[in-house]
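Agenda item 2: coenzyme a persulfide complex prediction
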Amino acid sequence: MDFELTKEQKSIQKIAQLFGERIVEPLAAEIDREKKFSWYIFHAMQRHGMVGVSFPELYGGSGGDELSRVLVIEEMAKHCASTAVTLSVAQIAPNCILTYGTEEQKRFFVPPLLSGEDLSAFALTEPNAGSDASSLLTSAKQDGDYFILNGTKSFITGGALSRFIIVFARTGGPRKISAFIVEKGASGLSYGKPEEKLGINGSETVEVILKDCSVPKENMLGERDKGFNIAMTALDSGRIGIAAQSLGIAERVLQESVKYMRSRVQFGKPIGMQQGLSWYLSEMKARVEASRNLIYKAAWLKQKGLPFTMDAAIAKLYASETANFCAHKAVQIHGGYGFLKDFVLERFYRDAKVLEIYEGTSEINKLVIARSLLGPF
Ligand code: COS
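Presented output:
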């Protein structure tokens, strides 16, 4: 067992750290305030190999491993949760295509997502199919060389900005779901207005509407009727990404709290000397370190090609709850200043809530863990 990062991982971490401090941090508050996706940051991340960090060089990636991907998302999240989630979600579609796509799909769709200028999205959720994802109603009916898709997808990150969206639609009865690559400009594809949210304001969230949307049959991803498994494996990896985002947020608010508790003087001494408050820090630190170990282990299992569904769910569950715990305590430590928009705590506090919701709520992750333990009845 080795807890040390490799030379390559350390070097990627360093680049991401500098990128976060120099490029992301100065823009993060404005992105939140203006509620605007930053193409500038996203393209810079593509150019610096961060989107493609864990993908093969053959398809425009940087050839790193899963832990490197975690390190990069973690660093981005220390500065801007919206940037971190955009990055994590941008890696879902290329991951799906490289795992399930034809060679033609890989060569055509993936390089522009990793080192080019394109963004992609993943559309599973519907207004009435959230946690119960397999009850989705969007339909895909074959008509000669095309599939005609009808339905509505909701909460789609980057939906309207993306060059294409991986859409899950029903091609038969129960469990018969297939995945399609729906390209921007396809007839019958439109978008709802961007959602107004509590946090992660710099990541776009829209409804995607498919009305007799025709998709060439070559754009089916993987086998017909086997799309649900594609969605589930994509979410396993996605959960590692969201866990890394959670870790970055928890680390940042902890760091802010340490700084503040050393400098803020009340009752004639720094508030860090008040035992009650210092114990908040200890609890935050313990949870941060536990989260890190869970996440890095899940990433390690994935890169070894070992089963990691349960470990990804544990990491996501624990790290997302840790981020919320830490953000809550950090605001408390900062008192009135934690409540002001001029300080970063308020933004991280709002941004943290969704971590317990998207890519599987805490309750769904508990269900995944319990099912892994109990097996089929
Ligand atoms: N990897 C690969 N395949 C998986 C899998 C995984 N992690 N989990 C389940 N599957 C497969 C099963 O093997 C089964 O395949 P077959 O039909 O070939 O036998 C199929 O998927 C259905 O599995 P299951 O019966 O467990 O599905 P359920 O409908 O009971 O749902 C949960 C399982 C609840 C785990 C799933 O719906 C889920 O993850 N929901 C949350 C969705 C989510 O995270 N949404 C957020 C979207 S992104 S914002």
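Discussion summary: The first strand starts at residue 120 and ends at 123.
Owner for follow-up: CH.
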